Amino acid sequence: MLPPAAAPVAHDPYAALRLPEFRRLVSARVMYIVASQIQGVVVGWQIYELTNNPLALGLIGLAEAIPSITVSLYAGHVADSVPRKRIIVPAMVVLFLCSLSLFLLTKPAGMALFANKQVLAYPLYVAMLYVVLFVSGIARGFMGPALFSFMPRLLPSRDLLSNAVTWNSTTWQASAVLGPAIGGLLFAQQGKGFAYGVDAALMFTSLLLFISIAGRALPEREGQKLNLSESVLSGVRFIFNNQIVLAALSLDLFAVLFGGAVALLPIFAKDILHTGPDGLGYLRAAPAVGSVLMAVWLTYSPLRRGAGRKLLWAVAGFGLATICFALSKSFALSLFLLFLTGVFDSVSVIVRSTLIHTYTPEYMKGRVSAVNNIFIGSSNEIGAFESGAAAKLMGTVTSVVFGGMMTLVVVAITAWRANKLRELEMGTK
Q: Which residues are CB-contacts of 377 (< 8 A; sequence separation ≥ 6)?
């Protein structure tokens, strides 16, 4: 008589969350992201209120993107050369000090130093806000590669990697839901000073949580030791030699660069949908609501068959929803369309993150993550500048419609040229 077959191992959607240090890492990221989102809502509304200029909103993204891009490749080299916690903690200290600076600049003494009520739009005061954002961009440039490459070191097995990536994305999106809504409500009910104070408090709490996680040794390097320039560029070469990863990154890059309307939401909120800071918070939160719901769904039903084709359809859906949002005059419809952009974007985020973690050796994850940060992280800020500049030249609605159409063009080109991505099945290399 044959022995009974072993029962199949059930998929555990909470596997990574059962690890105490992974939970602390996730909690620290939640605090950090909520704080950043609160800051984004408040500083965007504040600068538009002072300047009434769409280009000024675009410059917010540029102020963060320029330093982040500038340091990214070197930051990736550092993340693969120095224990990652030694980078994360100092970066969080700088981010906390930036949040504290924004809070202090709202106080009467801070405003008196840089603002003159007789001067239109407080030019020096606005410039100081951009300076703080510039410094925070440097810190984020170092934070991204270190945090990306630190997370897998907390896992006892690569079998947990896909689950950890999905929870990372889910909690990121959940934080992005809370942050804008909290920021808008705090600004509307308590004023920008109080909102910036909450931002600083959350950054400090995140710093303490990161400190509480034990450091990890660097993974063993493979191959010969590279000099600085070779090491910095190795992440670029790795990505450009991998068609699947390059295609996924390029697809996300151009979709975010052309298809995002988030930077212009203060204009839509104030001038088109006729709502206030609280309405802006809901608009900012709507994409993240869609993202987190889709991410939770994917936690229980991971992408397997036809993942590449689903990715292409998702980015196309993102472009179509963006076009419809630009044409909407209804606040409720606009919320729903932004919700859909988040649903579609979540698929792209999870597929891209899983691909990078799966295909990249541990000893190179800092450098590859740095290139990912240039492709994706900074494309949000550059996309914000592109949106602001396009809105100034073409008008707000026309610029967002144009961006959505360009997203569809990018999807069509990627589907045509990147056959390996089109045929991708998750779980295989």
A: 68, 140, 144
What's CA 50's distance to the chain center, in Å?
Answer: 26
**pTM (2 d.p.):** 0.71
Largest CA distance in the chain: 94
Q: How many CB atoms lie within 10 A of CB 13?
A: 16
**What average pLDDT values come out for the chain (429 residues) when binned by 10 residues?**
43 82 92 90 83 76 81 86 91 95 76 50 76 92 89 84 80 76 81 89 95 84 66 79 78 70 79 82 81 81 73 88 90 92 84 77 81 69 67 80 86 81 63
For 149-196, write each residue's pLDDT tens digit.
888 888 887 778 778 887 887 787 778 667 877 887 888 788 888 899
The pLDDT score that the predictor gives to residue 49 is 78
Please name the residue ranges forming H helices in 80-160: 85-105, 108-114, 123-150
Tokens of 398: 């026309």
pLDDT score for 1: 39
Radius of gyration for the chain, computed over Cα atoms and rounded to the nearest angstrom: 21
* Cα–Cα distance measured from residue 260 to residue 404, given in angstroms and rounded to the nearest whole number: 8
Q: How many CB atoms lie within 10 A of CB 381?
A: 25
> Tell me, what's the pLDDT at 378?
58
Shortest CA distance to 53 belongs to which of 40, 44, 65, 41? 44
Phi, psi of 119, deg, nearest 5: -100, 125
Q: Which of 123, 58, 35 is nearest to 265 (CA)?
A: 58
The residue among 337, 343, 342 whose CA lies nearest residue 324 is 337
What distance in Å separates the CA atoms of residue 426 and residue 429, rounded to the nearest whole number? 8
CA dist 19 and 16 (Å) reads 6
- 83: Cβ contacts below 8 Å, ≥ 6 apart: 215, 216, 217, 218
Residue 335's H or E segment, with its range, is helix 331-359
Per residue in 99-127, is it b (16+ CB within 10 Å) or e — as a string?
Answer: bbbbbbbbeeebbeebbeeeeeebeebbe
C-alpha span between 146 and 366 (Å, rounded) = 6
CB-based contacts of 53, cutoff 8 Å, min separation 6: 392
pLDDT at 4: 45
d(CA 14, CA 212): 22
Q: State the Cα–Cα distance between residues 28 and 85, nearest whole angstrom.
A: 13
